[in-house]
Amino acid sequence: MEISVVIPLLNEEESLKELYDWIVSVMQSNRYLYEIIFIDDGSSDNSWNVIEQLSAKNEAVKGIRFQKNYGKSQALDAGFNIAAGKVVITMDADLQDNPKEIPELYDLIVNDNFDLISGWKKKRYDNVITKNIPSKLFNAAARKTSGLKLHDFNCGLKAYKNEVIKTVKVSGEMHRYIPVLAKNAGFIKIGEKVVQHQARKYGETKFGMDRFVNGFLDLITISFLSKFGKRPMHFFGLWGTFMFLFGTSSAFYIGAYKLYNLYNGIKTILVTNNPWFYIALTSMILGTLLFLAGFIGELIIKTKGDEKHYIIKEEINL
């Protein structure tokens, strides 16, 4: 198998047949051995019926149907689990990604030995205020935080070596940060290709402004996880120890100062009337809690197993 095309979707019944024909045309003209994996992320329209019809006439079409809408990350993870192609291409189902980009993406992975190629929709047809400007700000922050010089982290059109998608686990809302996850896993040859962006032909976008807010929050999460995800004690333990030592030192100073004044007959306030007493006490408590958080984090990492955070309702050709 040369290429697996993984397509997550939600309520895209109008575009699926056209997208399928387009992909098959590209595959046949280049004589690729391929599979197309549709992941229906809990659609409420006839998307699954269309996928069943496509699979009935072409066994290269495979389908996964979720019990409910779990999100794009979970849909991609399900597709990655079964993808058998040497090169895995991801694209959206709304016809805004052009399948004619597939041969060049495939060549960059196979011939130029890239681990991952991320699409860059340099010229976009989205609303400037609600999408383009927030997207530029989001991508600038992602570049600064991750160290990856990519212009469009959120582009759905990407190409991967199969071993990349079998190594990287996508969960939560981390699909936009797969290049960062791949880099953290040791896949350092990550490139970018300018791809054609097309205006949406059918339906409405499934993403609102909240995706950018969530994106920034996820960026903070992945930045933390990339540094301390496997060793939380290095973060929580460090700060916990610092705060506990600060609190203990402050308490010792307060006590020593009180005893000194009593010994020399100097009038002094009660320890409990000294505001530094409460600062010291709070620091010791927080330091202990942070240390325990790091310890519990280490225990969780050592004992947790891989878990799927979605329920598959139906499958086709698997």
| Backbone CA Rg | 26 Å
Annotated CATH homologous superfamily of the largest domain = Spore Coat Polysaccharide Biosynthesis Protein SpsA, Chain A
* Total domain modules: 2
**CATH architecture title of the largest domain:** Alpha-Beta Complex
Class computed from helices, strands and strand pairing: alpha/beta
- The gross shape turns out to be elongated
Low-confidence stretches: none
Give the beta-strand count: 8
The number of helical runs is 10
Profile the largest sheet: 8 strands, mixed
Q: Within the largest sheet, what's the order of strands?
A: 7-5-6-4-1-2-3-8
Question: Describe it for me?
Answer:
This protein starts with a strand and ends with a strand. The chain has two domains: 3-228, Spore Coat Polysaccharide Biosynthesis Protein SpsA, Chain A; 233-303. It contains ten helices and eight strands. The relative contact order is 0.14. It has an eight-stranded mixed beta sheet, sandwiched between helices. It is elongated and about 95 Å long. With 318 residues, it is of the alpha/beta class. The longest helix has 31 residues, at 233-263.
Question: What are the SSEs and their pairings?
Answer:
Elements: E1 3-9, H1 13-30, E2 34-40, H2 47-57, E3 61-66, H3 72-82, E4 87-90, H4 102-110, E5 116-120, H5 128-146, E6 158-161, H6 162-167, H7 178-184, E7 190-194, H8 210-228, H9 233-263, H10 275-303, E8 312-316
Parallel strand pairs: 1-2, 1-4, 2-3, 5-7
Antiparallel strand pairs: 3-8, 4-6, 5-6
